[in-house]
Amino acid sequence: MTDRAPASHDQPTFRLSMLIYDKRYRSLTFQVIVLILVMSLVWWLINNTLTNLANLGKDINFRFLFTRAGYDIPQQLIPYNNDDTHLRAAIIGLLNTLLVSFLGCIAATIIGVAAGVLRLSKNWLFARLMTVYVEIFRNIPLLLWILIIFAVLTEITPTPRAYRGEDGLDMVFGVIAPTNRYTAIPAIVAEHSPGVLQIGRLAIPWLSIIFIGLLIAAVLIRRWLLARAQRIQEETGRRPTTWWITLALFVVPPVALWFLFGLYLEVPELTGFNFSGGINLDNAFVALWLALSLYTGAFIAEIVRAGILAVNKGQTEAAYALGLRPNRTMNLVILPQALRVIVPPLISQYLNLTKNSSLAIAVGYMDLRGTLGGTTANQTGRELESILLMMLIYLAISLTISGVMNIYNNRVRLKER
């Protein structure tokens, strides 16, 4: 055994000056100081706000959410009338925000991926056209695009009665009728409807529930098939063919539902002064959706282009040497590797699109900003509470999108050993 003095005897005696000059304590000291300063600033802001509200005879409470709203909302995904509460009006606005954001993310992704790939095309015309599109849309503020598209829809498109009579206008592809008030599109209707699931005032068609259930089942079965194929490949070296089973999983159920319930497209018809049948999309919604999709699509196109260029050129040459055609090289070799560069900034674009949807107030689309942060705040005088609620809701939506996309990013990124 060796003689060793106790560790405590080697430690120098603690002095207050060590909080600054000893690197073991210095970082902790500065963190505590910053925390105290931040908490003091927050406390000062809260206390100052409460004092000013008290001087104005106000307090912070959310009872206004359960009082009568008294205003109408043109587009509703669940039943609503002006006798409902401000809380239900806020939910209607939130659903409208989620709807335009979800559809905008899908359309922006399709536009952005196509434009990004075409910008690298050897076809001179396509490449230049995509360059013009990207530079025009990303260098002009989104608010202007929303107003321009809304003006085009309301000023250039005809009135509904212009489609009347034998000399009237023809609908686009015989099923779509753009007008200066709304765009009439066909709806899918069941001849033998299975009815609806009634939950309070909310009626959910059983056909939608069955379709979503079959879709979830198809996704789960496909995951099991891919895992089984991977296991067989690792054991035998041969991967079984699964593409036709996957195709059947996603094609057969919708076709079966189509024939079983007698589904058909209900084309809108002009009756009186308006179109009936089908779905009438408000021009404010169409303008906002188009502007968000085209504007965000321009940024996604640059992200896709950067991701593709980040893949080593040798990968393309190796794929060509193996006899792969350009489209299969892009789908099987380039894009899978480019996703690790594309997905992180793509998450930011989805978050931006969702937050930019609050510009809907410019064209009168009643989203969360238009209901809770607009009419409700003005009527009740509860601006602070409305803003706080909106901040929390947008924060929750953004964190959800970020979390889901980060899970997807972890699944698709290359696993390095």
Topology summary:
Elements (H helix, E strand, L loop, with lengths): L6 H4 L7 H4 L1 H33 L30 H34 L4 H15 L3 H14 L21 E2 L3 E4 L1 E4 L5 E4 L2 E4 H31 L6 H18 L2 E4 L2 E3 L2 E3 L2 E4 H28 L2 H9 L4 H31 L11 H13 L2 H30 L5
Antiparallel strand pairs: 1-2, 2-9, 3-6, 4-5, 7-8
Low-confidence stretches: 1-5
Question: How many distinct helices?
Answer: 13
- Element string (H = helix, E = strand): HHHHHHEEEEEHHEEEEHHHHH
Task: Kindly report the spatial arrangement of strands forming the biggest sheet.
Answer: 1-2-9
Query: What's the count of strands?
Result: 9
Query: Average pLDDT, to the nearest integer?
Result: 86
Which shape, going by the Cα principal axes?
A: globular
Distance between the termini: 44 Å
CA radius of gyration is: 29 Å
Could you tell me the strand content as a percent range? 5-15%
Assign a percent range to the helix content. Answer: 55-70%
Biggest sheet record: 3 strands, antiparallel
Structural class, from secondary structure content?
mainly alpha
Overview of the structural elements:
The structure is a single chain. The chain is mostly helical and 417 residues long. Helices cover 63% and strands 8% of the residues. It has helices at 7-10, 18-21, 23-55, 86-119, 124-138, 142-155, 206-236, 243-260, 283-310, 313-321, 326-356, 368-380, 383-412, and strands at residues 177-178, 182-185, 187-190, 196-199, 202-205, 263-266, 269-271, 274-276, 279-282. A hairpin with a 3-residue loop joins strand 1 (177-178) and strand 2 (182-185). The two termini are 44 Å apart.
